[in-house]
Amino acid sequence: MQTESRLTVERMVKLGRVSRSGFYRLDDAEPDPDPDMDWRDAIPKIAVAWPSYGRPRWTRELRDRGGKVNPKRVYRRMRKDNWLCVRTRKFVVTTDSHPTRKVYPNLARDMLLTATKQRWRADIT
Hints:
Layout: H1 2-16, H2 20-27, H3 37-40, H4 42-49, H5 55-64, H6 71-80
């Protein structure tokens, strides 16, 4: 009986043009179910409800919804499904281009210094 199965394997290897080890590897290759499927449907709902959430908050939210998740696993899934949050920094304007008060001229610009201690400077800002 073993010789018949051995001949069958050899025929399959020849027909499939694969090595014997490759044949056995393909024989055992059943697709594993995705372990993340139980909580993957919750991810788009969280992303729409809270668009600024990052990995720590997503992990906490998924745990609150009953998922057993690890922060690294959540980050990997976020990166794979392209759900990473894009950070935008607020632009702060620090220069007033149109001052409302009078701008005084720099009187020291045209000053000719001939000795020490002729011009003193102070900054009150």
